[in-house]
Every structure is written in structure tokens, then in C-alpha cells.
Amino acid sequence: MTTITELPPAEPGLPTGDLALAGMPGVIDQVALARLYGEPLFAMPQDLYIPPDALQVFLEAFEGPLDLLLYLIRKQNFNILDIPMAAVTRQYLVYVDEIRSTNLELAAEYLLMAAMLIEIKSRMLLPPKKVADGQEAEDPRAELVRRLLEYEQIKLAAHKLNEIPQYGRDFLRAQVYVEQALQPRFPDISVVDLQDAWRDIVKRARLVQHHVISREELSVREHMSIVLRKLQGQKFVEFEALFDPTRGMPVLVVTFIALLELSKEGLIDVTQAEAYAPIYVRLAYSPT
Questions:
Q1: What is the rounded CA–CA span in Å between residue 22 and residue 4?
Q2: CB neighbours (10 Å) of residue 287?
Q3: Comparing 40-49, 83-92, 224-233, 245-254, which segment has the lowest mean pLDDT?
Q4: Distance in angstroms (rounded) separating the CA atoms of residues 267 and 285
Q5: Per-residue pLDDT reduced to its tens digit, 141-152
Q6: Among the listed residues 137, 131, 90, the one whose alpha carbon sits nearest the alpha carbon of residue 114
């Protein structure tokens, strides 16, 4: 229904149209109460007048004439197939008169329905028209009943649709972006990152490293024979050429001991042309 709310009248003792509150100071801490055309307003104007119908609140409880008519029928449990036109028309006109006095434009559609109800009621009061072939005359309310039933079905369907959860009102859609590509895309790694990763691996390896000492039997006499075979048929052999660094430190040590033993036994000669010159080794000369 349409409700019109008016502003309360001015208090007794104040000038007509004056809405200033009693005891209200003219200036409140130098803060403007409002702004009028950009200018600050520090006190309520004494000649302010607000017309009684300045504030109106319209509550449209019905969505149209059919909605109001269906409400009146269902509220009083009338049979929609046998509408008591007199009672329904009377109640309908009361509502139309109420909204027509305030908003004629809003009441236009309702006035049209009211005219239709009066026309149906007048047709029901007249004698029914004769129809050929002995058929019964059509009920004047038939068309209105058909429209009311269709409207009620649509209204119930709309109500059921409204109860279905709606996107943006009852729930939000979760969105997850998943990048899909035909070619695999590998992350870019800088040289500095690789260096840091390698240092970390080496650091962790040092924490768990272990040294395995294996036992290898080396014969000094065997290496003495090897050195003599290398010197066979050679005048001089450079000292460094008698060592094989690829066989490891133990073999180098044993080879050096073998040279010392050969020199001690006089089987080889270790010579040097001058200071800081290369050292050479040869088989010892033995006169026949």
C-alpha cells in the first residue's frame, strides 16, 4: 500500500516554517552546519519554510493491477474460478481511491483494472445472451480468471527461480589461472645462481666426505728392474722421464727409492753438466 509521511509541524512559539531547535547556538565551534551554494552556513535560517508534502515515501507493495487483485482473492480465500465480483471490486476501489489522491500517474493502470471489474460486474447483472445450438453463455469472469491463473503460475515460477542460488548474490565463482602451453617453459637461471648452488653442494659434501686408505704392495726390487730396462740401449735418460705421475704418489716414491738403491749399488750413474742443469741417468760403465 502507499503510505505518505509528512514532516512534523513546527513547535509552538516558533515562527511559522522555522525549524531551528530551541536553545541551539548560532555558531557551533566555528564549524559550518551546512553549505549553501558553496558558502558555509553557521546558523539555521530563521525564515526557512518546508512545505508539508516535501517528504513523501511511496511503498509499492504490489507489482501491478493483477498482483493486487490476486492478493485480495487469496487473502480472503475466494475461489478464483468463482470470484465474488461485488466484494472484490469494492475492496479494489478502496485501494485505487487511496493512491489516486496522491499519485494519479501511479493509479492509471489500477483505474483501468477497476473499470474492467465494474464492467464484468455489470455484465453479470444483465440477462445472459442467448447462444445458438443450446450452448451456455460464456461467464464474463472467464477471461479475467484465465489471466489471473497465468499470472499466478508466472509469479510462483519467478519465486522458485529467485530461490536458486545466484552468482554474485549468494556465491562467487572461484577463478584459478592455469598456464598451459604446448612447449614446456623452463625457468631462467643465472650464472650466479648456479655458482651458489654448486658451492652449497661442495659445502655439504665436505661434511660427509671420507678418505679410504687402501693397501698396495709395491716392490722396490721390481721397480729397480723397471728402471734398468728403461736405461737399456740409452746413453742418457732424463731424470723426470723415469717417473710416471699417472700411477700415483706411492709408485713415484717407490721409483725414487729404486733409483737410490741402484745408485748405491753402482749400477747407474746420475750426472749433471753444470749447476741447475737437467739431471740425467745412465747405466754405469763397467770395463770388460
A1: 28
A2: 3
A3: 40-49
A4: 8
A5: 888 888 888 988
A6: 90
